[in-house]
C-alpha cells in the first residue's frame, strides 16, 4: 500500500501514471493532501468515483494513528501519535492571539540523546530518528483533525533536530513548497550542535534558527546541559557569529530561567556581554516543572527584572507564554507516554 501523505508532486505523478491517469490528477491529489488535509480518499470529490476506487486499491491517506488527544484550558491541543512500528511522539498545536497564527510544535526524534538535566524528553534517552515523512505527518494530523491550516512550525518537540538534519531539511522543504508555509515561519531549535550550525550557515537557511543557550557562563551551562562539554559556549559564540554574518538572519536565543541558578542580575550582565556582538532576539522561558529534579520557576517579579536588564542591553526580549501545562504539553514536558 502506498501512503499518500509525505509524497511530493513527482511521486504523485508516478502514482497516477501507474494507474493510467493524467498528471492533472496528481496535482488534485496533492492539494487534497496538503492544502485541504482530507482523512479519506473518498473526500477527494473532484476525482471520479471510479478513479477513487482504483486509488483506494493501491493507496491510503496515512498509516499513523492518533493514540491520545488532549485539549488544554488555554486551547492548546496535544496529540500522541503512534507510527506503524509502535513508537510514539507528541505534536502540539498552539493558538496565539487570533486564528491567524496556528503554530505546530513538532518532534524530530523519538527521545533525545542530548539529555539536558531539565528536560523530560532527555530522560527517556534516544530511541530513533524520525523519517521526514513522519515529521510531516504530525502537521497533517493536526490539519486533518482540526480542519484548520497550520501557519507556523517550530521544531521544539521531542528530539534534537540538528542530529537528524537530513530529514529535518527535507521536511522543511515540503512545509515550504507543498504546504506553502513561508520559510520565515519555520523555526529550528537546537541545543547547539556546532558543526551542523555551520552547515546551516553554509546552506544560507532562510528559516529561523533558535539556540537553547540557557546559561551565561560555561560552569552553569555545563551543569544544565552535558552538551556544553562537547560544544562549549566560546566555540558556540564563533558559530553564531558566523551564522548571522553568512545568512544576515537574526538568531533567537532561548534562555531558560531557573530560580537562583541563572536568573540573577549577574547572569543578566554576563549574558548581555556574551550576546553583545550577536544579531539576536532573546526569548526567556520560565522553567516548567518536570519530574526528577528540584529546579524551580522564578517569581514573575524576577522574570520581569531579568527581562528589563536584558532589554537595557539593547536586545528585543520576549517571555515565552506557558502553553498547555495542564496537559503536560509545555516546553520540556514531552516524553512520548500517556501517563
Ligand atoms: N532539542 C531542541 C529542541 C526541543 S526543546 C532544543 O533543546 O533546543 C525546545 C525548548 O524547550 C528548548 O529551548 C528547551 O531547552 C526547552 N525546555 C526543555 N525543558 C524545559 C523545561 N522543563 N521548562 C522549560 N523549557 C524547557
Ligand atoms: Fe534534547 Fe532539547 Fe530536551 Fe535537551 S532540551 S534533552 S536537546 S529535547
Structural summary, described in words:
The chain is of the alpha/beta class. It folds into two domains: 59 residues, DNA polymerase, domain 1 (Orthogonal Bundle), CATH 1.10.150; 263 residues, Aldolase class I (TIM Barrel, Alpha-Beta Barrel), CATH 3.20.20. The protein is 37% helix and 21% strand. The chain is built from twelve helices and 14 strands. The strands form three sheets. Strands 3-4-5-6-9-10-11-12-13-14 form a ten-stranded mixed β-sheet, covered by helices on one side. α11 links the parallel β12 and β13. α1 packs across α2, α7 packs parallel to α10 and α11 packs parallel to α12. The longest helix has 15 residues. It binds S-adenosyl-L-homocysteine and iron/sulfur cluster (SF4).
Q: How do the helices and strands line up, and which of them pair or pack?
A:
Elements: E1 2-3, H1 9-18, H2 23-34, H3 49-58, E2 59-60, E3 65-71, E4 77-82, E5 88-96, E6 101-105, E7 109-111, H4 120-123, E8 126-129, H5 132-146, E9 152-155, H6 165-177, E10 186-190, H7 194-203, E11 208-212, H8 218-224, H9 227-230, H10 233-247, E12 251-257, H11 265-275, E13 280-286, H12 300-312, E14 316-319
Parallel strand pairs: 1-2, 6-9, 9-10, 10-11, 11-12, 12-13, 13-14
Antiparallel strand pairs: 3-4, 4-5, 5-6, 7-8
Ligands and ions found: S-adenosyl-L-homocysteine, iron/sulfur cluster
Query: Can you summarize the main beta sheet?
Result: 10 strands, mixed
How many runs of DSSP E, i.e. beta strands? 14
What is the CA–CA distance across the termini? 33 Å
Can you count the helices?
12
Strand line-up of the largest beta sheet = 3-4-5-6-9-10-11-12-13-14
Proportion of residues in β-strands: 15-25%
What is the CATH class of the largest domain?
A: Alpha Beta
Amino acid at each position: 500500500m502506498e501512503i499518500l501523505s509525505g509524497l511530493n508532486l513527482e511521486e504523485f505523478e508516478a502514482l497516477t501514471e501507474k494507474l493510467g491517469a493524467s498528471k492533472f490528477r496528481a496535482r488534485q491529489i496533492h492539494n487534497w493532501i496538503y492544502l485541504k488535509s482530507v482523512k479519506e480518499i473518498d473526500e477527494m470529490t473532484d476525482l471520479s468515483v471510479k478513479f477513487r476506487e482504483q486509488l483506494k486499491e493501491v493507496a491510503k491517506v496515512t498509516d499513523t494513528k492518533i493514540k491520545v488527544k488532549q485539549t488544554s484550558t488555554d486551547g492548546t491541543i496535544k496529540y500522541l501519535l503512534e507510527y506503524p512500528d509502535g513508537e510514539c511522539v507528541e505534536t502540539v498545536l498552539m493558538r496565539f492571539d487570533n486564528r491567524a497564527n496556528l503554530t505546530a510544535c513538532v518532534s524530530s526524534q523519538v527521545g533525545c540523546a542530548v539529555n539536558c538535566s531539565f528536560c523530560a524528553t532527555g530522560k527517556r534517552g534516544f530511541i530513533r530518528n524520525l523519517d521526514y515523512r513522519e515529521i510531516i505527518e504530525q502537521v497533517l494530523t493536526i490539519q486533518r483533525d482540526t480542519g484548520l491550516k497550520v501557519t507556523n512550525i517550530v521544531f521544539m518537540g521531542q528530539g534534537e533536530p540538528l542530529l537528524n538534519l537530513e530529514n529535518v531539511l527535507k521536511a522543511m522543504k515540503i512545509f515550504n513548497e507543498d504546504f506553502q508555509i513561508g520559510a520565515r515561519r519555520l523555526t529550528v531549535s537546537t541545543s547547539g550542535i556546532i558543526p551542523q550550525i555551520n552547515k546551516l550557515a553554509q546552506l544560507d537557511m532562510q528559516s529561523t534558527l533558535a539556540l537553547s543557550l540557557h546559561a551565561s557562563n560555561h560552569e552553569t551551562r555545563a551543569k544544565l546541559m552535558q552538551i556544553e562539554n562537547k560544544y562549549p559556549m566560546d566555540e558556540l559564540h564563533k558559530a553564531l557569529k558566523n551564522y548571522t554574518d553568512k545568512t544576515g538572519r537574526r538568531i533567537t536565543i532561548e534562555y531558560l530561567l531557573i530560580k537562583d541558578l541563572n536568573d540573577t542580575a549577574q547572569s543578566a550582565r554576563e549574558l548581555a556581554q556574551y550576546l553583545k556582538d550577536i544579531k539576536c532576539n532573546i526569548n526567556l522561558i520560565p522553567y516548567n516543572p518536570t519530574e526528577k529534579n528540584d529546579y524551580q520557576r522564578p517569581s514573575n517579579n524576577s522574570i520581569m527584572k531579568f527581562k528589563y536588564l536584558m532589554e537595557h542591553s539593547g536586545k528585543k526580549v520576549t517571555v515565552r507564554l506557558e502553553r498547555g501545562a495542564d496537559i503536560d504539553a509545555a516546553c520540556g514536558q514531552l516524553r512520548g507516554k500517556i501517563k
